[in-house]
Amino acid sequence: MQIVTLCLPNVKRKTETRPKKCLYCQGETFQRWGKVPKPVRDSRCRNVQVYRYRCCHCRRTFRYYPEGVDQADQTLRLRKLAAIYWVLGMSLRSVTLALAPFGVKLSHMTVWRDLQEQADRVGKQRHWQPVRVLGLDGAYPLVNGKKPPVLIAVDLGNGQPVAIGQVDESNPQAVKRWLEPLVKRLGVSVIVTDDLSSFRSVAPKLGLEHQVCQFHVRRWVGRTLHDLKQRVPQEWLWVLDEIKGLLTELPLEGSRRLFELWKQIPEPRSGRNGSPLSPLDQLRYLLLRLSGHWDSYRLFDWQKDVPWTNNGTEQAIGRMKMRARTVRGYKSWQGMHAALLLSGSGVAW
Length: 349
Ligand SMILES: [Zn+2]
Fold this sequence. Notes:
Bound molecules: zinc ion
Structural class: alpha/beta
Strand order of the largest sheet: 6-5-4-7-8
Order of helices and strands: EEEHHHEEEHEHEHHHHHH
Number of strands: 8
Distance between the termini: 15 Å
Largest sheet: 5 strands, mixed
Helix content: 40-55%
Strand content: 5-15%
Shape: elongated
């Protein structure tokens, strides 16, 4: 379990500051125009004082709320507390029960509306914040008894999720359709993904640089090497060792070296007419593949803000799943969307 620091917003009973700009005309001078008590729902206070001001320029009046309070009955602190309970896996009804000891009565529908509103707000903020390095990963969350494939996009600059789509990550057309507007809107330059061919084909089409998660590469290459070790002729075992060394070091000239190794191994005699590839042919194929993909393995080496794994994306998905684990899945698509945005945002922690 990840350790998180709980930080609830402050709620002040009255404000010590004055408004800086008029809500309507950007005027900067005001007259105080009376005060009104505002009953609030909060874990600590019941009432706050709201001042009214009149703009000296456009003469309209408006309410100026103290910290942690806005038009809503529930303070920001209470809304955040409810969101945390919910993200951690409480049902809407349990959230209302958990707030009762604070003397707060909320219906479960109010909690649900608050969550949706907060998720929408987070979503809109993310919508236009530029993202340079975007992590992508697929998942199969339990939603309403089904497990639809989804694709999750995370800003790897700050670890926050930015979007979730009902997209199968192994389908390049679907990935491109979903990713293209997102990339344009956020100004993405680099994607970080697993070693899937769909991302490999989409990245150049969208003008993106591509870093492949090195955990995944090492895992599948490690498995392949382990398997080949039992089967390739003894005299070629040194090639396997050299591949392993290259992947550990990821040197700049790795691609060329792998290509040279490929040339040294004799051409296949099998693999034509549908006969299965011999172990040695499989080794040749591996060398060619790694050589061709080399640049996408070591982008992080010269671009400092590109991580060498897709860990940040996996963590965001893990936080989203935290709720799903305790409630055995999501009841709706909106619920999952809210959980993703709230669990990875300043709203929930
Ligand atoms: Zn004004």
